[in-house]
Specification:
Length: 57
């Protein structure tokens, strides 16, 4: 996964969390938070891979 896919997953999670908050649905809210964290992890993993590739290791 790339940085852009991680960002997209974060945005999707943010929308899901907001929907859960608006409808008072804790399950949807939690799913959204989880997707945001997964997206952030994917983004950081992609950044680390880029950094490693650029440093020649």
């Amino acid at each position: 996964m790339g940085k852009s896919k991680g960002k997209a997953k974060q945005m999707k999670g943010k929308m899901k969390e907001s929907t859960g908050r608006a409808t008072d649905n804790m399950s949807t809210q939690s799913e959204g938070r989880g997707e945001q964290m997964t997206g952030k992890a994917e983004e950081l993993r992609a950044k680390a891979a880029d950094h490693t590739r650029k440093s020649g290791r």
